[in-house]
Design brief:
- Two copies of one chain form a homodimer.
- By secondary structure, chain A is α/β, with parallel strands linked by helices.
- Chain A has nine helices and 16 strands.
- Chain A folds into two domains: 152 residues, Medium-chain alcohol dehydrogenases, catalytic domain (Quinone Oxidoreductase, Chain A, domain 1); 153 residues, Rossmann fold.
- In chain A, strands 3, 4, 5, 6, 7, 15 and 16 form a seven-stranded mixed beta sheet that branches.
- Strand 14 of chain A pairs antiparallel with strand 14 of chain B.
Chain lengths: 341, 341
């Protein structure tokens, strides 16, 4: 069998990562032991959190050091398996990393049903981003019909699902996104009530006020930074803010402080709360979330948009694109052919 | 009958209030109508929130405009009552304001039992500050035995109760206070595990780390500002921060932004939350809170310290003292004689 390919971190990026911060390596094709499976990677998921992993800062997960293979969730197909229920040809999702092939313990692989939905969705609406949207919105923010829900990075993998679940729940939904296409997408294709283009609005606060005239009950924050500051000026009594991502800070220098208005007085006056979220805490409830979102997808009540590039070697550029907002929908690298399409 | 005295706001203070921002007035003794009571004020409660009321900024309550009588909670004795169950001689607590005498609807007055505890405690441990401590700690922060609880303004009316309830619940309690006397009080008299003197510690973070080596599970924040920033650097997984006061900002200029580190990344990594609190939201549960704290006081498990000055005309200076941290314990102005002492 030919060699496997993998991408390692060559050096820690300063500020925005560059493709030259990564390096493609060829390694011998790995072999599965008992309880393991050899998987051919088909779709590598590219997500903003990856910037945090290569920063060297302490976070919720072990980081990627120079020389390490980049981490990432993927969809693939089993080539060979020993001592588990997995069979060659099975489609699976799991933490395969930036690789063409990988050997993993079978218990880290979730078997997919290609009849349920395209297998790529296991990286998106029926995967980590969809679960983030589902649990962070419903569990942490507890939306009620009539609430105004604002979501940033609204056309992204998480944001698009957040807005549609909120609509199903009878909320007024305002998306914040960058560019005319993304705004039109969430408003006209996904059914958000309004979209605010942060790249063109000179007065973001006024634009948000026009889109959410009664104020903000829930803010689903994927970006942090100045957009967070602006939304916070318009929160209502008992507002709930969930912090799922802080993409605005991901390219800050190590130790660089993220400074802005302290929200303490505003939280007190409005008896509001800001809560951090990590989807790992809901691993045990994935079956519930996946079943409900799959049903909504099947009913046509949740739509999704994916964005693809071809070839593992494009992964570094795809990550830069996600950090710059160049992707449009859930970003995937097609590492090898998808036999279901 | 002689005239009544009252104190009105003469002009909005710039920065720290001065006694000259207030004015004493004499007015005709008011007379109760049906359903009302005339009350002689005995103890006027002086609290940090009063600075917000005179600032002109929009907040959770209508402000005090120049010419208005200052608002405030008080304990008094009924002089005359019509059309209610109140009788002359009854002790009552209610929103009497900075006055020697006041007429209020009987339903705004809570009758006190002087056999239960000294009547002044209805302004403190058995009043609004005690209820703030009780509900903000137990309901919002949900302490568990073994949690490390940090409370700022630890020797104040709220802080001293917070720490003792947390101790009853089996927590490790660290108080932050200003000055040797206050720190010794919370540690040696109230039984906190440690006290940190923010006025003398050059490296507050290091001092806090020594006092709370395992990190902070709960931060009961009465002050905001730089102390908040420091405590936040040491929060643990699933930390809960309740914002009950922001005294550090109360003398900011109108419109002056309160700027500091955004806590969004830290909240995400730790899946922590910051929540604003206002005790009014718990009015319906006061009977529960009062009964439990009264029992703890009776058992000697909750101690309290009060601070008194004599004479209504001292109220402005007492407020400045509270804002500067000059008081030591719950601040009261003794407006007239307490016949129970």
């Amino acid at each position: 069998m030919s060699d496997a390919k993998q991408i390692v971190l060559a050096q820690r990026p300063q500020g925005m990562p560059q493709p030259s911060d990564f390096r493609v390596e060829s390694v011998a094709m790995p072999k599965p032991e008992y309880g393991q499976a050899l998987v051919r990677v088909i779709y590598l998921s590219i997500d903003p959190y990856m910037r945090g992993r290569i920063s060297g800062a302490v976070s919720y997960a072990k980081g990627v050091d120079p020389g390490d293979v980049m981490v990432g969730g993927c969809v693939g197909q089993v080539v060979e398996a020993k001592g588990s229920s997995l069979k060659p040809g099975d489609f699976v999702e799991g933490p395969m990393g930036w690789r063409s092939h990988v050997v993993l313990p079978a218990n880290l692989l979730r078997k997919l049903d290609p009849a349920l939905a395209p297998i790529s969705t296991a990286n998106g609406v029926l995967g980590m981003p969809g679960m983030t949207a589902y649990f962070a919105l419903l569990d942490v923010c507890q939306p009620r019909a009539g609430d105004t829900v604002v979501v940033s990075a609204a056309s992204g993998a998480v944001g698009q699902v957040v807005g549609q679940i909120a609509k199903i729940g009878g909320c007024r939904v305002v998306g914040i996104a960058g560019g005319v296409r993304k705004c039109a997408f969430v408003r006209d294709e996904l059914g958000f009530d309004a979209a605010v283009d942060y790249k063109v609005e000179k007065d973001l606060g006024a634009a948000l006020k026009a889109a959410a005239p009664n104020g903000v009950d829930i803010y689903f924050d994927n970006v942090g930074g100045a957009i967070h500051d602006t939304v916070m000026t318009q929160i209502r009594l008992n507002a709930r803010i969930v912090v799922c991502g802080t993409i605005s800070t991901y390219n800050n220098k190590p130790g660089e402080e993220d400074v802005g208005p302290r929200q303490l007085r505003r939280l007190l006056v409005n008896r509001a709360r800001i809560q951090g979220f990590l989807v790992w805490d809901y691993n045990h409830r994935y079956p519930e979330g996946l079943a409900r979102i799959a049903a909504w997808v099947k009913e046509g009540r949740i739509k999704y948009r994916e964005d693809f590039v071809d070839g593992l070697e494009k992964a570094p550029d795809a990550l830069v694109g996600v950090l710059e907002g160049r992707n449009f929908g859930k970003m995937n690298v097609r590492v090898s052919a998808d036999p279901t399409r």
